């Protein structure tokens, strides 16, 4: 979830609570007003890359967590990232989203946006959405309200407290509900959803902001087999419309969704190719099996 969204959600919950205390809600705390949805600007992908990292380094207390990392992602690509524990996968996502500043290197969004010059909230607003492993939906709001809230991430929080959808936004919300398989659950409180449904809802919240690039950290951890299968279908349906970077340890899930797989190890790329290719690579076998 984006920093702006977390802030807006906290404010929204506070306002909902206040209204409940006063006994005066009209529509579950989302009464008249307006908001300005974040709309990502155009990203220049004429060079065939939506994300480009070159020779990125970061050390924590002398430990090289990212060590000469080079990576690029094509527009509309669904890239899977695998690697043993401590390989640097989370740190890489932290760098892309502005949470961690690298010591050196180049990180570009499209060919013109130098991500190292931007703050975390701005990077999210430019169209890079991040989904952490643990779902962080607003449990006391309905599915509908969670999605609605995702449109209202204006930094002037007062707007998000009093947000009202226009026709186009209602259509979009309906589409996202269908995409994330929650059309029948729009009025349910998010806290009553299964783990998998919460994950889909959070992905839906990111989709409401129409991200160009989605970073997804272990999206199927803790899901049932059926939920995992549905998540695979969801990601395949998003491919092309969005670029996706999926970090996951579940190899059967990777097999279902992947074209190109990148193996990270010790902070840099060890191998890249189809899952079959990287699984047959002696160096990959060695880091996974410790031979
Ligand atoms: N803030 C930090 N301070 C010190 N060390 C850190 C910090 N963040 C990450 N590290 C270290 O950097 C290395 C890479 O960590 P990272 O979390 O990026 O790996 P990962 O590939 O995501 O691992 P996992 O699959 O277990 O989530 C690890 O050895 C970790 O302990």
Would you mind describing this structure in some detail?
Keywords: ATP-binding, Cell membrane, Membrane, Nucleotide-binding, Transport. It contains eleven helices and ten strands. A six-stranded mixed beta sheet has the order 6-7-8-3-9-10, with helices on both faces. By secondary structure, it is an alpha/beta fold. It has a domain of 200 residues: 3-Layer(aba) Sandwich (Rossmann fold). The protein binds adenosine-5'-triphosphate. Adenosine-5'-triphosphate (ATP) binds next to β2 and α2.
How would you summarize this macromolecular structure in one to three sentences?
This protein is of the alpha/beta class and 291 residues long. 37% of the residues lie in helices and 21% in strands. It has a domain at 3-14 and 75-99 and 127-289: 3-Layer(aba) Sandwich (Rossmann fold).
Question: Any chance you could write out the topology, listing elements then pairs?
Answer:
Elements: H1 3-22, E1 51-60, E2 63-73, E3 78-82, H2 89-96, E4 104-109, E5 113-114, H3 120-125, E6 128-131, H4 143-151, H5 157-161, H6 167-179, H7 195-208, E7 213-217, H8 225-238, E8 243-247, H9 251-257, E9 260-265, E10 268-273, H10 275-279, H11 282-289
The structure holds adenosine-5'-triphosphate.
CATH class of the domain at 3-14 and 75-99 and 127-289: Alpha Beta
Q: Span between N and C termini? A: 39 Å
What small molecules are bound in this structure?
adenosine-5'-triphosphate
CATH architecture descriptor name of the domain at 3-14 and 75-99 and 127-289 = 3-Layer(aba) Sandwich
Counting DSSP H or I runs of 4 or more residues, the number of helices is 11
What value does the Rg take, in angstroms?
20 Å
- What amount of the residues lies in strands? 15-25%
CATH topology value of the domain at 3-14 and 75-99 and 127-289: Rossmann fold
Overall 3D geometry?
A: globular
């Amino acid at each position: 979830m984006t920093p702006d969204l977390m802030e807006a959600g906290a404010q929204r919950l506070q306002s909902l609570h206040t209204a409940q205390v006063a006994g005066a809600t009209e529509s579950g705390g989302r009464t008249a007003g307006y908001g300005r949805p974040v709309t990502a600007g155009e990203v220049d992908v004429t060079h065939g890359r939506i994300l480009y990292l070159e020779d990125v380094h970061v050390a924590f207390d002398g430990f090289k967590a990212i060590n000469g990392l080079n990576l690029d992602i094509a527009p509309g690509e669904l890239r899977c990232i695998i690697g043993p524990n401590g390989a640097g996968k989370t740190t890489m996502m932290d760098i892309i989203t502005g949470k961690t500043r690298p010591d050196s290197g180049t990180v570009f969004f499209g060919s013109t946006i130098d991500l190292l010059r931007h703050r975390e909230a701005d990077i999210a607003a430019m169209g890079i959405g991040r989904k952490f492993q643990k779902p962080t939906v607003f449990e006391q709001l309905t599915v509908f309200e969670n999605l609605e809230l995702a449109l209202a991430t204006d930094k002037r929080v007062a707007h998000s407290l009093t947000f009202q959808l226009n026709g186009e936004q209602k259509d979009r919300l309906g589409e996202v509900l269908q995409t994330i398989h929650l059309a029948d659950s729009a009025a349910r409180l998010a806290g009553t959803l299964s783990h998998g449904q919460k994950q889909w809802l959070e992905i839906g919240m990111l989709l409401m902001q129409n991200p160009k690039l989605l970073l997804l950290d272990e999206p199927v951890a803790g899901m049932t087999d059926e939920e995992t299968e549905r998540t695979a279908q969801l990601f395949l349906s998003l491919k092309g419309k969005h670029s996706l970077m999926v970090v996951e340890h579940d190899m059967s899930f990777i097999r279902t969704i992947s074209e190109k797989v990148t193996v990270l190890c010790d902070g840099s790329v060890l191998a890249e190719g189809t899952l079959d290719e990287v699984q047959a690579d002696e160096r990959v076998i060695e880091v996974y099996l410790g031979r």
